[in-house]
## 1
Amino acid sequence: MGDDQLLRQARDGDRRALDELCHREWRPVYALLYHGVRDRAEAQDLTQEVFLRALRSLDRYREGAAPFGAYLATIARNLLRDRWRRKAPGFVDLDQLDYVDNAARAAGGEADPLERLLADAERDRLCRALAALPADYQTVIHLRIVEGRAGAEVARLMGRSPDAVRQLQHRALVALRAALCEESPR
């Protein structure tokens, strides 16, 4: 039985159809979330949340607009974005970027207070510029640059082709550069 027919039956209250839909889509949704959080328990919790949100909005899902699996993947990606935004101010955890003064770290000492102040100001400027970007740009920067994931993996997580991810990353970096130039201290 196809997803569209199962969806119609689930909307009509058929519990078996709803169970079948969830059973079919559970693994792909879980896999997407697990790749995003790298924690089984959290991925399971997020997977349950995806299905709860999908069930609450089942009447708004339009058949033929996108496959049901893609609809669930969109909900999952939105949950991941929300998680990343809650986790770090400005969306990206800049400590993962090793933005701290590498020379001071290599010397085994602390950065000079003025250098530390300048580095903190630069970090804040970068956070503001990243936060001003569209969500897809933030996501591709986070996955490709902060987490260092491969383009094919990011494509799978974002539901796009590898070429589309490369283009999106390029546009995101151009937009980030422009945002940083606009905010550049004068």
Note: Confidence is low (pLDDT under 50) at residues 88-109.
## 2
Amino acid sequence: MSQVSSRKPTTQRPVRTEPVSRRRNSEKTKEQILAAARAEFCKHGLAGARVDAIAERAKANKRLLYHYFGNKEELYRAVLMDAYAEIRAGERQLNLDALSPDEAMDRLVRFTFRHFLAHPWFTSLLSTENVQNAAFLKTLPDIPALHSPLVGQIERILENGHREGIFRDGIDPVQLYISIAALGYFYVSNMKTLSVIFQRDLSATSPVQEREAQIVQMVLRYLWKPGA
């Protein structure tokens, strides 16, 4: 007759994991702090921005701000990185490799201009960082890797266009992107002053559409091979 063991079955202690709701709340709080910090930095610059004001904008406890981001400078770095990551993510979603070279360039130019229009804080943030001689951007190790795919994609578009006989040869992809960004950036960053100078509401739908069409035309005409 078999003996029944008197030992109690061992039970494994449950692994403590952060509840899903708590993780979601943490991510939401971080997003709110980033958005509030972005607005504060764009309005007052890094030096003028106040942590108390950021916490108040975010409706978050100031201790949580320090817990998640460390200090004001680290929070500014996070805002800067998030801004660049957002526009690069949008570019990846364009699926440019599936388009013909001229269609791909058209879509990239329109996206860049529309991103500046939809996110005017982006140009303000970049202006703030340029005033500081890109001091904080230099400390972000992920920036070169973040931009390399964009340069590579533009290079492929140019190569495909040249191979198909529609784009001319010898175009630097970095210089080209700088031109694309500049044509939209200046319009958005100086919209208020330009509207006063030329006595025309440049934020209205008609001039914005006219500007977008002109940027596309300027870029494509620069790229097209003579006689193509």
Note: The chain is about 70% helix and 0% strand.
